[in-house]
Amino acid sequence: MAKILFLADLHGNMPATLALEKEMKKIAPDDVYFVGDCVGKGPENDKTLEWVRSNCKHFVAGNWDDGIVKGSKNCLPEYEASHFFWDQLSKEQLAWLESLPFEDEVLISGLNFRIFHGRPTDQNYHSWLNPAELEPAFTNKSGKKFDGFICADCHQAYIRETGNGFAINTGSVGNALGVPRCHALLIEGDVGSTERTPIRFTTIDIPYDNQLAAEIARNCSELPNKEAYIKEVLTGVYSR
To answer: Are 16 and 43 in contact (CB under 8 A)?
Structure first.
């Protein structure tokens, strides 16, 4: 069985990202998928972006990745304070973000999974939605149906079975809501196999130095919505 790690929503939080890196060395995944939002919200966006580029093999864009690129080109007045995020990034880094696709897919143990962040290509699929509300996520924009989907965006990890298949959220590396720890998803199975073989799903839950993450944000004078971000990092309570 191969080990495939899926991670998302780093959001400029390097203490959480480094905690994940330490755990990854123990897991030794065979493949790593980035499921969107390496930037935005937190203070160290250039660092989390480069970490994703160095440690992941497959990439899809998230709403913050997309929004920061668009903001750098044509910032609306109401988002003027958000220039902090794209000012941290080089032109080359912004071009890399812009190049990311919004969807991917992977076949594991006979199950074909759709991979997407959530917004902007689709909805934000929260953990409390009923099966009928989750149903659209099993079909991509080309009309292809899948046995399961792997998304992010809501910052809460879940693994659910519905009549349509497996509904899965990676959780958030750097901005988890609910339990303020670092989350990622591990799937173990036979990659590329059309045969239905055993498959394992594991939510990885890693403690990290939340106080350090808050202190780095506190010392970043230009960080927009600083107090809301700090509250989220420390408590896991959505604050904006």
So the answer is: no
Which residues touch 156 (CB under 8 Å, ≥6 apart)? 126, 127, 169, 171, 172, 176, 177, 178
C-beta atoms surrounding 98 within 10 Å: 15
**pLDDT (tens digit, 9 = 90+) per residue, 59-72?**
999 999 999 999 99
Pairing of strands 111-116, 148-151: parallel
Q: What are the two backbone dihedrals, phi and then psi, of residue 108, each rounded to the nearest 5 degrees?
A: -135, 120
Match 């998304």 to its residue by tokens: 151
Q: Which helix (H) or strand (E) holds 99?
A: helix 91-99
pTM of structure = 0.97
Q: How many C-beta atoms surround the C-beta of residue 53 within 10 A?
A: 13
- 138-149 pLDDT, tens digit each: 999 999 999 999
DSSP-derived 3-state class of residue 106: strand
Distance CA 137, CA 46 (A): 31
3-state helix, strand, coil in the chain (%, to 5): 35, 25, 40
